[in-house]
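README, section 4: Worked example with a bound small molecule

Sections 1 through 3 covered apo chains. Here we extend the same pipeline to holo records, where the ligand is supplied as SMILES alongside the sequence. The molecule in this example is zinc ion. Nothing else about the input changes; the structure line simply encodes the ligand pose together with the chain.
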Amino acid sequence: MPEGDAIFRTARTLNRALAGREVVRFESAFPALTRVHDDRPITGRTVESVTAAGKHVLMRFSALRHAQGAPSEQRESRGGSLVLRTHMRMNGSWHIYRPGERWRRSRRDMRVLVATSEYEAVGFNVPVAEFLDPRAEARQDDLRRMGPDLLGDSFDEDEALRRIRAHDDQEIADVLLNQRVVAGIGNIYKCETLFLCRVNPFALTATVSDETLRTLLRTARKYLQANVAKRAGGIVTYTGFQRERGEGGRHYAYGRARRPCRTCGTPIRLDTQGPHARLTYWCGTCQR
Ligand SMILES: [Zn+2]
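The generated complex, written as structure tokens:
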């Protein structure tokens, strides 16, 4: 699953390409989206913004211009503003192309296409996509219940701490992955943050002090932000001299099973954890 920083970068790229531009073409392989487009055309609307909310990408479209003068009731039902919510899960991705440019993925994988006169944004294998009007957006469960966003403009650390504490009976690594507790951490940041803070991933959250929880949150936020600031490339947490080829080459623990811990030399362990059997890479010596 993409991490929060990857979604944030995707939204930023889409925003730079599309925001303020009029939609000239819309296509989708999802009947539900096509139906909305038939009733309340996306073509002719302006893309107002594309933002990330946790791991969701929210593409906002203006009200239809001809509807703007209509009575407010009608404006709401037909031509009011809409947001396209997409979630990438494991395999989804958004690409940006110039019109006529050759796609790097098969047309069969196209799920959503939003084109302006300058760019085509193509969502490939996006498993979750829906149009929401403002009322439905406010009710959308995943958005409504999402925890404080580590990549949000402001991050409410006290609220995140309160939500973590509500899961005191669960293992800390699983709690960090729960987007309703705190949004933005995927499996890589989970492993790296716990390693950097020397916290055992299997520790019950109740046994982790408030001070350590705050350090975990600040560490995750720091590395997420640092990776957002990069222009491109995979997630880097380890910038030391002894980089390795392949997966985990620029990480402390994630992807480095059986390789020596960068701090103590003990082989990094790999275990599955939690109800979804997520992979946890960790050092049995540093993270007691
Ligand atoms: Zn170690």
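What to look for in the output: The longest strand covers residues 47-53. The pocket of zinc ion is lined by residues 261, 263-264, 266, 283, 285-286 (CB under 6 Å).

Section 5 describes how to batch many such records.
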